[in-house]
Amino acid sequence: MNPDWLRYFIALAETKSFHAAADRLHVTPQAISRAIALLEDQLQLPLVDRDHRVKGLTGPGEALLEEARRVVTSHENAERRMAEWRTAEPQGPITIAGSGLWHYYLLPTILADLLAAFPRLLPRLYSMLPAEVEERVAEGAVDVGLLLAPPQRPDLEALAGLETPYRIVGSPGSPSSWRECGFVVPRFFRREGATSLDGWPDHQYPRRVVAEAEMLESMVRLCEAGVGVAFLPELAVRDRIQRGSLVVIARAPVRHHDRLFVVRRKGVRPTPAIRVVSERLAGFSG
C-alpha cells in the first residue's frame, strides 16, 4: 500500500474532517479524498462512513487504522535508519515547540551551542500551549516538545531534564524582606479565576501585589524598572543578575522549582537531529 495513503487515512480518522486532515498534513482536502478513494478501491472495502461529512470509520476502517499506525511507524523508522547510513551528522530542519520559560530563555543558549557543534541543523521554533504541544508532537508535525509536566498522552515519551529554582528578585536597593516588598505577579487572564502562575502559596503567605502581567518578559522589565519584585525562575534572570540590573533580594518562605520535560513520539526511532537536540535539552552531554 502507498504509505502516503495510510498517513492520509490516519489523519482523517483522527480529525474526522477532510479539511482538518488536510491542514495537519499541509495538503488539499481533495488530496485526502482521492487517497481514501484509492485506498478503498484497492482494498475493495468501505473504510469511512461519510456523506457530506465524516461520521466515523466502518468496521474494516477500524481494523485498518490499527494496522496502519504500525505500518506508518515502521516505514518512518526505516527511512530514519537509512538516513543515518547516509550521514551520521545531525542536520536539516528540526521543529521544537514550547511555551514560556524554557522556550524563551533556555532555547537560545542551548541552540547556540548546538549550532556551533552541528552547523547543518536548521531549528524551527514554535510557541504554543502545552495541550497543543502534545497534540502536534503526537501527529509528527513537531519533532521535540517542551513541557513543565510529564505528557498526558500515552503515545508520547518524555525525558526529565533540567531544573531551575525560583528566586525573589528586584532592582538593586529593593527591601530585603519579602514581607516589605510589592510583588509583580504572573496571571493568565484568559483562564477563569486568573490564579497566580509562579507557585507562590498566597493562601499561606499573602503578599502585596503591585502589578500583574501575562508575559514573563514584562515581569522582568517591571522589576528592572523598580516597580516591584517577582518570584521568578533563576534561569530566566541569570544574565540580568550577572549584569547587576537585578539582584536576589530576599529568601522566599517556600521552595519552588520548574523541571523541563522533553517530549517525543513513543515507538518512533529519532533521527540524529532529534536525538541530539532532545538529549541536549534534557541536560545530557549528547
Features:
seven-stranded mixed β-sheet; D-Maltodextrin-Binding Protein, domain 2; alpha/beta; elongated; 24% strand; Arc Repressor Mutant, subunit A; 9 helices; 286 residues
What does this protein structure show overall?
By secondary structure, this protein is α/β, with parallel strands linked by helices. The chain has three domains: about 5-85, Winged helix-like DNA-binding domain superfamily/Winged helix DNA-binding domain (Arc Repressor Mutant, subunit A); about 90-155 and about 260-280, Periplasmic binding protein-like II (D-Maltodextrin-Binding Protein, domain 2); about 165-260, D-Maltodextrin-Binding Protein, domain 2, CATH 3.40.190.290. The protein has nine helices and eleven strands. Strands 3, 4, 5, 6, 9, 10 and 11 form a seven-stranded mixed β-sheet that branches.
What is the architecture of the largest domain at the second tier of CATH?
3-Layer(aba) Sandwich
Element-level helix/strand string = HHHEEHEHEHEEEEHEHEEH
Count of helical stretches: 9
- Domains, number: 3
Averaged pLDDT, please?
Answer: 87
At the fold tier of CATH, the topology name of the largest domain is: D-Maltodextrin-Binding Protein, domain 2
Q: Could you name the ranges where pLDDT drops below 50 across 5 or more consecutive residues?
A: none
Q: Percentage of helical residues?
A: 40-55%
- CATH level-1 class of the largest domain: Alpha Beta
Query: What's the overall geometry?
Result: elongated
From the N-terminal CA to the C-terminal CA, the straight-line distance is: 37 Å
Q: What is Rg? A: 24 Å
Structural category is alpha/beta
Number of strands: 11
Strand content: 15-25%
Largest sheet: 7 strands, mixed
